[in-house]
Amino acid sequence: MSTYTDSNVYQEYKEFHEGISQHGSSTLLNEIYTELYITEGGSGEVNNEHEVRQIETASRRPATQETPIKCNNLFKDKSIRRVLTKGVAGIGKTVSVQKFILDWAEGKANQDVSFIFPFPFRELNLIKEKKFSLLDLLHDFFPSSKQLQFIDSDAYKIMFIFDGLDECRLPLDFQNNERLCDVTASTSVDVLLTNLIKKNLLPSALLWITSRPAAATQIPPDCVDLVTEVRGFSDPQKEEYFRKRISDQTLANRIIAHMKSSKSLYIMCHIPVFCWIAATVLEKMFGEAESGEIPKTLTQMFTHFLIFQIKHKNSKYHGKTDTDSHQTRERILVLGKLAFEQLEKGNLIFYEEDLKECGIDVKEVSVYSGVCTQIFREEFRLYLGKVFSFVHLSVQEFLAALYAFLSFISNINVLKQQTTGFLHGLKRSKTMSDFFINAVDQALQSENGHLDLFLRFLLGLSLESNQTLLRGLLTQTGITLRSNPSSHLRELNLSYNKPGDSGVKQLSALLEDPHCKLEKLQYIHKLSNPSSHLRELNLSRNEPGDSGVKQLCALLEDPHCKLEKLELFDCNIPEKGCAALASALRSESSHMRELNLSSNKPGDSGVKQLSALLEDPHCKLEKLQ
Known about the structure:
The chain is an alpha/beta fold. It has 24 helices and 19 strands. Helix 23 (575-584) links the parallel strand 17 (565-567) and strand 18. Helix 8 (235-245) runs antiparallel to helix 9 and helix 11 crosses helix 12. The radius of gyration is 27 Å and the shape is globular. The model is unreliable at 1-6, 20-25, 413-420 and 475-486 (pLDDT under 50). Its main location: cytoplasm.
């Protein structure tokens, strides 16, 4: 280990600022750190699903199919010199890098490594127009390394860490960049990086690159010796995090129980940053007797998170805890606009020029970060440059959705300047129903699904319960999704949402409306009304419980029900429920042609009843899974 850089590294990496790096008190990383679940291998294919969908899919993958590996063992095999670690936003890649370096500096691991040089891509972006030799670059980024007048990767084991490839704004032209072998030759940062990765420069050096999945394909496969994936927290690690984060163990148990009660929230807890957001919200609501319904959905959780940050700021600086400040509302809108426009571009980090394009005065940017110190952050980096970001991609997506929603209902024509893209599609909307239809259409046009969670938040904000929470930021409330004669909507997918009693009542009223032309709805509702045109119902990955199965059976026996296709994949329906469904489908009035009961628990009795159903002359089933 280096004798003159490890003390500097230790001071820089020993502390951990959870959520935001420049605000609030820090915690010793060794006290708060919870081991992450990291696996070897990984497909080189591009996954075009939204990252939250990838988390949901991975959560159902059997652990027996994977080979776990610890960060400190990445280079244990001496033949491995270049490692690419993938992981969705906020899953813990940067913290893993920080812990790796801290363990090295403390003498706990990888003591055969003489020097570690960490380069975040967000900092390298600031010098993309400048030229350096590799030696000069090291001296500029790490002043204590100036004692090194030459670099010999055969004499010393040297490691480079390039964190955040997805944030890289360099071309990384592996195909056409010049070949470079001299560490003292001056060239662009881009050329230095591609030659390091291709092992033309310092071929014996170790390289560790981290990236979100989609951007990882920028590195040619033949330039990677090992691919790993940070999967975030396993279920036991989720509990460990909450118990470390919250000193009151009774309160921690309540929070863990609540998170487990909501499938969508518990899946999101694979992401450490989301655990922090949930802990921030629920610790206040459970621990300080905050009034209001405990959040059970993603939209509710992020809405409460935003409100708490605004209240904290107003209480700290103005002695008030309300959210109806006009100034606060305007600043939230500006941050939302920044979130929206950068989301369209696929950017999670922004620079001064990005803020200027959005109409934010860089000199006053601290005012915006002051509105929500735990949401928007400003970092001072090398070369007097500044880097800005939201605490997590999901927070950016929520603020972007809030901006689009507030702008529409307030009749603020902030969209008129946009002539192409997603905003243009929303700009044409004249009614709330058109607004949501256009939003769905625009999101579906995204090839990589990057607007999926944004759309989920946008639809969640249409619920009156969430509008009530945001009443201080709204100029009008009470907007509902009622039908109108001009609506042409035929399909509506509300999977993975929980509308609550009020939302179900609104959906029921909507379906009974004679103007409603819906033919396909992916959520439960009153289908027994004679005017209902619905033929397909998808309840997959919901858990209806005993009462829900009873209602479903009653529905299937109703002569007015015209359902022909029912999807009940992974609904945790037990033996008794499967038997009840089989009995209901024997009804002469049943029109059911296709039934999917995959990944449920029918048991022997349920299987027998379903088999007998297929032999029943009244049964119209043509396909049973």
